[in-house]
Amino acid sequence: MSDIERLNSMLPNSLSVEESREKGILTLSVGPQHPGSGHFRLIIKVDGDIIVDAEPDPGYVHRGEEKMCEYRNFMQNIPHLERPVIADSCSILYPYCLAIEELLNIEAPRRAKFIRVIMSEINKMIFELYWLGIYGIFLGHSTMFMWPMADRELLIDLAELASGARVTHAYFVPGGVRNDLPDIFKDRAVRQLKYFRNRLNEYSKVFYENPLFIDRTKGVGILSREDAINLGVTGPVLRGSNVPYDIRKVEPYDVYDELNFDVKYMKDGDCFARAYVPYLEMYESVDLILQALEKMPDGPVRAKLPPNPKGKVGEVFKRVEAGRGELAYYVISDGTQKPYRVKLSVPSFRAIPAMRKLLIGARLADMPAIYWGLNYWPVEADR
Amino acid sequence: MTIEEFSFANFIKSVLWLAFWILTVVSLIGIPILFILLFYVEPPEIAGMKITPYLLLTMITNPQVGAPLIRATLESDFFKVAVFPGFGFASIFATLLIFTERKLLAKMQIRVGPHYAGKEALWWIRQFGGFPQLIADLLKLIGKEIIIPASADKIIFLAAPVTMVVASAGLVSLIPVGENWVVADIDVGLLVIFALLGFFPLTALLGSWASNSKYPFIGGLRALHQLVSYEIPLFLSILGVVILAGTLNLTGVVNAQSDIWFLFLLPIGAFIFFITALAELERIPFDIPEAESEIVAGWLTEYSGMAYGLIQLANYVKLYALAAIFVTLFMGGWSGPTIFDSIYIFDSLVFSGEELSSFLWFSIKTFGVAVLMILPRGINPRIRMDILLRTGWAKLIAISFINIFIAVALIYTGVV
Amino acid sequence: MSDQSLYREKEIVDKISSKFGEKIKTNYINTKRIKFEVSKDDIIEFAKFVKDMGFDHPISVAGTDYPKDGKIEVTYHIDSCSNESYFGIVLTIAVRLARDEPIMPTLMNIYKGVEYHERETFEMLGVVFKDHRKLDRLLLPEDWADIPPLRKDFQIKGR
């Protein structure tokens, strides 16, 4: 029996009520009002403690971002496009800015490119800390919920210093960034990042080296390398499954090719690997920011743009590495002031097939670890 | 008076008016009835004195007359059951534990915990830092509606929290906090503890079944599995103590530890008891029946308002009880050096120095053990059901047999 | 862009055109981006061939409505995770379908990951994917009773 046939035989509707009663199978609707779901529903069927079927049901926070883009001109799209992931709002604007820059034939100044790298790495860390905190509380570890949330404030302060807003920065614009960094930014960033790196070591002691955490995640929800690639997952999930694939390395944008960093990956493909890769990446992000702060030249931060510019006819596909993985924009322009079509390819949406695959056959208690380990962000997936 | 005419002055006026009428009715009807009753009813006799209204009135001017009554009241059954060392003491201890837990966890998690409640109004208890938050929480729970699901079995649904409180109070009644200071000093006290602990899985299952909802049902089944499989190592770990002490009476167990605590003779048994007590209490890392990210709140999902409050109260009273049982079985119970002088009021004994010291030692030990039971919550995630059951059945039971062998060997070699 | 810098892309196009010849139209070759236009009859064969070449990681499925041409274009974006010499190259595989009858075979038997992307395209543009596991509502409300919203003749109210 092929995988597809096996999947087909486990369709949610393939079991009638009578059959469920006879076989003792319980249908649970996890979400949208459930402490462990977010704006998202998972319809799962459990036989005892084993999940025999899972059907993800996103769409509770769909706002039609793609349609909205077609009605606004290139600049007006900036604020609403960062709403899907307010915890990682720079990264979700980044590919849009790159795409529009190519459509408008402009290039960001060199200083702006460094600032964009710095801000996008800070935002990545802000997101990863949020993610780590929720991971902690999903496994019942309340200290691991509080610590990253508290340390996240430091990075939010940094981002606020640069952009003026705590979460929705609207900082990246086509042609650079909105404003220059203040003078005190460098000193404060160096100080806070050093403190933050020490805190990261403590996370490892209280969380990743905890035998109970290892019990719950090692060998749970194993996603093989072939499945990970074929299911189209991305980011830490892909790298946790022994695929050292990072957009920053394979297709360097802005100044990532001038900075030294490693692609962190793990071989196991289980929940522990997916939880550990973002942790390792936070060390890399700290290094990246410190390097970029050193190498950053002086100069302008924003290229001159005509008001309400017209794009060239054509299409662009641009992608960056966000906190959750590869974030891509497919923008088609027909030569007017507005994009003809904007398609967001978001990492969360790409995690859904893997979620279904991993949940079937897992234990009910493993559901939070698998679900949140996949870096699924309901609001982003719905767009 | 319509709602538009409402003013605070009117409200005060109506309250005063109500108070006036109550006073009038009580003084014109209530007091004569009381006097008629006193004429016919035989007054109770405490400490060789007849408690008549005249004696009570005399006590206002000459308190010395009533002084022997204090000790007599303290030793009465009602006081022991309701106040000390019974349910009242346990509840206050539990409240203290809740507050300690919240503050301690906050300290571990770089927070401040309860801090603001009552800070302005009750300036004189500011140093307690937010202690009134517990009162506020209690008031909130009392004020909330108890929502009963439409398809629930109402009687069993509401009986479950009450049963839980009763079972926890039953546990409390067996704990000696001092020489002769125990509500029920029965010869088979440990057996009664086993029996009462057996109530909790039943309560959880009935409550979850009566909710007629899916998540509570799963939670109830989990609670049943967990509690039943952890009661066996719990009982086996106590068996070592019984072998050494030669009695099932808790006071007898404490007296048997006058030379050395059983903690040092049976460390394995103490360890197993501690772990299984955590599992019995459904505390992190064993809060599988209430795992909120998997099954919402487990078998508590449908409970709201004071029904939920009662379950929480029962949980914390149970925490106190299990910590106290641990102290009684392994840490010498109330025993400790006498550091207080006796308290006399008008030359009649209220508390002797030994009693006061034993209360203090017992409280300190119990508090310490309870805090140790709270602490794992700050550093551990929740473990999984299959790991829990494997640990319980395969490892803990095996180790507890080793513990029994050690106890037998100690008896055989004449160490104890 | 000199011709030297695009040698990897040229190589891929040569490989594909030697296999399929005139059936495949190459729309553009940019740095790390190649767009092919494939008819819906050849798409399964083409996808299998491309997957064997090493392009095994599906990124997204987008649909674009062209009411002037009377076409709906479904674009698959595929990149490579296993063949290191193709790292970073994104293939854009476009299938142009008639707007009146947008039916094409599903690719979810080749790339499992496109299952939910195709479902989204189905509800957003009304493209029917034959043999799909479950072609059903995904993001839109269950009571949505209008034309597919990403078609150009669907107008947002007030705009």
What this model shows, in words?
- The complex is a heterotrimer of chains A (383), B (416) and C (159).
- Chain A contains 17 helices and eight strands.
- Chain A has 383 residues and is an alpha+beta fold.
- Chain A folds into two domains: 3-57, no CATH class; 65-347 and 364-382, Cytochrome-c3 Hydrogenase, chain B (Orthogonal Bundle).
- In chain A, a hairpin with a 4-residue loop joins strand 6 (314-321) and strand 7 (326-333).
- Chain A is globular and about 70 Å long.
- With 416 residues, chain B is mainly alpha-helical.
- Chain B has two domains: 3-68, no CATH class; 84-111 and 144-412, no CATH class.
- In chain B, the strands form two sheets. A two-stranded antiparallel sheet of chain B has the order 1-2. Chain B has a two-stranded antiparallel sheet with strand order 3-4.
- Chain B starts with 7 loop residues before the first helix and ends with a helix.
- In chain B, 37% of the residues are buried.
- Chain C has 159 residues and is α/β, with parallel strands linked by helices.
- Chain C is 23% helix and 29% strand.
- Chain C has three helices and seven strands.
- Chain C is globular, with a radius of gyration of 17 Å.
- The N and C termini of chain C lie far apart (41 Å).
- Classes of the chains: A alpha+beta (383), B mainly alpha (416), C alpha/beta (159).
- Chains in contact: A-B, A-C.
- Chains A and C meet through helix 1, helix 3, helix 10, strand 6 and strand 7 of A and strand 3 and helix 3 of C.
Oligomer: heterotrimer
Please report the first level of CATH classification, the CATH class of the largest domain in chain A. Answer: Mainly Alpha
| Spatial separation of the terminal alpha carbons of chain A | 36 Å
Give a quick account of the main beta sheet of chain A: strands, pairing sense, barrel closure.
3 strands, antiparallel
CATH architecture of the largest domain in chain A: Orthogonal Bundle
SSE string of chain A: HHEEEHHHHHEEHHHHHHEEEHHHH
Q: What is the CATH superfamily of the largest domain in chain A?
A: Cytochrome-c3 Hydrogenase, chain B
In terms of per-residue confidence, which ranges of chain A show pLDDT below 50 for 5 or more consecutive residues? Answer: none
Instruction: Give the strand line-up of the largest sheet of chain A.
Output: 1-2-3
